[in-house]
Amino acid sequence: MAAGYHRRMLPHRPTRSSFQLAIVLLLGPALLGALTAWSGDRSPLAALVLWAEPLLLFGALYTLGWLLWDRRPLPALALILGGVAGGAILRVPPVGSSPVAAEPPWAERLRGCTKLPDPVRQPIRVLTWTMDDSTATLADFRERHVDLAILVGLESPRLAEQWADDIRGEALFLPATATSESMALVVRGAFQYCAGKEDSWDIPLPVGEGERGRAVLTFPEIQDAGVVPFVAVQMPQPGAPGSWSGWSSRLVDSAQTIGALSHTLDPRRVVVAGDFHAPRTFRELAAPLLGAGLTEVNVPASWPGPTAGLHALDRVWTGGAWRPLSTWRLSAQGHSRAPLLVDLAPANAQAR
User: Fold this and answer.
1) Is 99 inside any structural domain?
2) Based on the structure, what is the number of domains in the chain?
3) What is the pTM of this model?
4) Biggest alpha carbon distance in the chain?
5) At 150, is the pLDDT very low, low, confident or very high (cuts 50, 70, 90)?
């Protein structure tokens, strides 16, 4: 009886089926990663794989645990190696590409507005948050010393104005349209800059049926810091099922538009923040921003909000005149996204 029990507890000897399973587990994840990278983010299948990566990782870990429990070390080792190879392929750093887009008629004037002001004099703190509704308590941010905030999805201008009054600043509320969500910007200072009557410029982004997206250019003058060319972003979100096949392509085209806008301005001073609707593994989204001279700040994952984050959907990009100091993920307050704080300093300034 004891001898029989001992034999059952011995590891399985590698059999032909074990070798075949090991080959599948070794090559499968690696080939999936290579196919995804080769087809590019404009492919709906590739976009789905990149979005579902955390679920694929969970499935791989579950399978690995089952193989180890069943004492099958060869397939388990093959799965580890294949998963590492596939994940490494998906995380090959993006290569910058020159953004190509038509230059708007007011670009020349805005280019001058970017170059004329003095350099920013001290670090600034930026908040970016994509909200589900207007039930948030913005009072929680009043002690965070936020200098500039973008609140995507905020439907109540009153909340933004109350916060602006508390910090002796100004709120800029942008109502929702047929193709965009509502958005509020709050600055510890004022948005009235660039010697004109307009405080903001809407940048059209390509959207499909049921999709919403927008980009807004402003020149907030932060008290005691200076003027910051700021692009508030809400990339197109998936809309009607019939438009899903082209959504990832429109996402890349939107990045081209934002990259071209940043390149038209002085890209060294630009800050881009908001809802990108895509994780960092979307390399084609990053390429035109890198080509425009921007660098992504390494922020924590903001989605899902109530639990540990899986994807960094709310992201921040800056020009070469900035360097990141620190980042925080705050309480999601019941929303699907968590707010993020980012401290940015002029490249030649000390931390405050």
Assistant:
1) no
2) 2
3) 0.82
4) 92
5) very high
**71 and 212 fall within a common domain:** no
Q: Is 294 exposed, middle or buried (0-12, 13-18, 19+ CB in 10 A)?
A: buried
Element (H, E) at 84: helix 73-90
The residue with tokens 């002085």 is 266
Average pLDDT over the chain, rounded to an integer: 81
Burial of 166 (0-12, 13-18, 19+ CB in 10 A): middle
- The per-residue DSSP string of 24-56 comes to HHHHHHHHHHHHHHHH-TTSHHHHHHHHTHHHH
d(CA 18, CA 135): 55
Angle at the Cα of 67 (from 64 to 71), degrees rounded to 5? 135
Residue 66 corresponds to which tokens in the numbers above? Answer: 């089952």
Domain endpoint, select from 90, 117, 136: 90
User: Tokens at residue 7, please?
Assistant: 């034999």
3-state secondary structure of 329: strand
Token pair of 143 as six digits: 């002690």
Look up the domain containing 280 and give its range: 107-346
Per-residue model confidence as pLDDT tens digits over 247-277: 888 888 899 989 888 888 777 889 999 999 8
In this structure, the answer to whether residues 297 and 325 fall within a common structural domain is: yes
188-212: burial string, b at 16+ Cβ within 10 Å, e else: bbbbebbeeeebbbebebbbbeebb
The domain boundary, picked from 61, 90, 119, lies at 90
Q: What is the percentage of the chain residues whose pLDDT exceeds 70?
A: 80
Q: Residue 115, CB half-sphere, CA atoms under 13 Å: how many? A: 10
Answer for the pair 316, 298: CB distance below 8 angstroms, yes or no: no
Residue 98 belongs to a domain: no
The answer to whether residues 82 and 176 belong to one domain is no
Most confident of 12-26, 85-99, 183-197: 183-197
